[in-house]
Amino acid sequence: MATESYYMGPSPARSSYLNGTRILQICRQAKVEAVHPGYGFLSENADFAMECRDNGIQFIGPPVEAIVSMGSKSASKEIMIAAGIPVLHGYHGDDQSDSRLQIEADSMGYPILIKAVLGGGGKGMRIVTNRNEFPEALEACRREAQSFFKDSRVLLEKYLNNPRHIEYQIFADNYGQIVHLFERDCSIQRRHQKVIEEAPAINVIESLRQKMGEAAIHAAKAVGYIGAGTVEFLLDQDKFYFMEMNTRLQVEHPITEYITNQDLVEWQLRVASGEKLPLNQEELEIHGHAIEARIYAESPSKGFLPQSGTLHHVRLPPVSRRVRVDTGFEQNDEISVFYDSMIAKLVVHGENRRDAINRLRRALKQYQIVGLPTNHELALRICSDPAFVSGQFDTGFLEKHGKHILLAPHILSPSMQAIGTVCFLLMTQAQRRRKKESTDPWESPSLRYFRSSGTYIRVLSVDGNAVTAECIAHDTFRVHTAEATDAFDVCGTLSSSGEFSLKVDERQYKGTAVLHSRQLHVFCEDDFKQYVDVFQIETPKSAAFACKEKSTVANEKILTPMPGKVIQVYVKKGDTVALGQPLVVIEAMKMEHVIKATRSAEVETISCQEGDFVSDGHILLNLRIG
């Protein structure tokens, strides 16, 4: 834990974490001897590393020259070609004119990939499948590259259809020793950004694994590397190609720490202090299997749009020797629009891959997070998917299986329907009690439906299923569901914090229920300490009022899907737009998001202009339909 803290500056990264002058000012004020740049922000910024060196401050990273060489994707590929390391066919030239880039793209044949020369993290990158898409994709890449990396140059390379993304952790000291700490498979991605990483890679023959490891070491030697780095390859069946080298510690470094029993940050500090590497290549061994799931504030069902807002409820899974959670957020914290939307990294270690997958599933079910959309359930579904479990996946995994994974209904068992219903009833009862209203859950006119032999009955709709709840005693209910032949007798308690303990027939369940934005989130485990379900349901309604509203509106409001800055407005009042036509570009959470027309229409009004900062749900423009 930190013992001192200093104000970095305003929230925008350019005014704080990307402000090298301010960071160095703090370093001098605190009289520091060294700076660990972490990952992201200035961790791969050669100018900042040089300023540290010029100010007598140790930059815990590679030499400035190595950062410069590997920081440029075009220069790094030329260096790798000279070193005899396989590189994908592409264009890395200085002529950046539209016409030259178009000619090079056409000569390569589509699909191709446009990448920012100084890019990273999936930013400044576009896949182009045909010639007509090229101009718009090039413009978007240049704009992102200039915004995030202050350099609009791009390179082109042949796009491989669904290779695997395999990377090697390398380390070098000041005495010429270089080792790799084995590989990580980072193929499960969305928007070219990693979601699930694991080590070691599955289904890679040993001879190929050794060749890739040797190539990673040669890559480090080619640039006189010192410290921690990651060499990334694309693996297409039995052929691999250099993609890039990250001159820093990676987000996913904990999985390497798990399988090697080594502390990589400690290694960095030792090397920066002038020590030799703690181990040589022959002394390094793989122990078990590790997997990391990145938890993002985003909406997978809406194209993985990043989200911002308040973490209404957070409870981390129990941390142990086998389970690690890296996070900087607590309950009631805000996910800001100014930074990446990652909330946490959930990392597990198992005796083997099957054991690691099971531990990850359990930890994900134990991870309680409510307040804004996340990829939490997506991660849980991925690690339960047969293709992932069998190791038959590549970078196209979510394109191939995403629709099935995202749209597969979460079928609630009758017992879970009963638990959700009773949790809701106990919760509403407690709310009325706190408001000093009747303690009888059925006494309110809005809740009273009919009496039968002295009992009270309510009919609810839970996920479209009719559920009948009969109060037969204090905090005791008889619940009838459509799927179950017999009723469930449910009794128990629910605390003011949402902790419940319920007995369903003869089986005991406990967990947490959280009501937020008309959704009831239930995290439930049984008496064997096994998490049996994590689910959310719309607030149960009376069956008589469960209906959908019909809209007869002849125009459409185009709203911002998240807070952000308006980068470009493509249309003007009176324009006719077609389905899929770009309307507005919003920059949020380090990414550009193009908002397109969902149907043919006429632009009626425009309520934004370039440079505006807009809130979530802001009306950008109105379209007249028909």
Automatic annotation (TrEMBL):
Matches recorded under Pfam families: Biotin_carb_C, Biotin_carb_N, Biotin_lipoyl, CPSase_L_D2
Keyword field contains Transmembrane: no
Q: What keywords would UniProt list here? A: ATP-binding, Biotin, Ligase, Mitochondrion, Nucleotide-binding, Transit peptide
Please list the GO terms describing molecular function. ATP binding; metal ion binding; methylcrotonoyl-CoA carboxylase activity
PANTHER family from the entry? CARBOXYLASE:PYRUVATE/ACETYL-COA/PROPIONYL-COA CARBOXYLASE, METHYLCROTONOYL-COA CARBOXYLASE SUBUNIT ALPHA, MITOCHONDRIAL-RELATED
Q: Where is the Biotin carboxylation domain?
A: 1-403
GO CC terms of this entry: mitochondrial matrix
Which Gene3D superfamilies does the annotation name? 2.40.50.100, ATP-grasp fold, B domain (3.30.470.20)
SUPFAM superfamilies hit by this protein: Glutathione synthetase ATP-binding domain-like, PreATP-grasp domain, Rudiment single hybrid motif, Single hybrid motif
Q: Which residues form the ATP-grasp domain?
A: 77-273
The protein's required cofactors = biotin
Task: Tell me where in this chain the Lipoyl-binding domain is found.
Answer: 546-624
| SMART domains named among the record's database cross-references | Biotin_carb_C
The name on file for this protein is MethylcrotonoylCoA carboxylase subunit alpha putativ
Q: Which organism is it from?
A: Albugo laibachii Nc14
Coarse class of the primary localization is: mitochondrion
Keyword Mitochondrion among UniProt keywords: yes
What is its subcellular localisation?
Answer: Mitochondrion matrix
Cross-referenced CDD domains, in alphabetical order?
biotinyl_domain
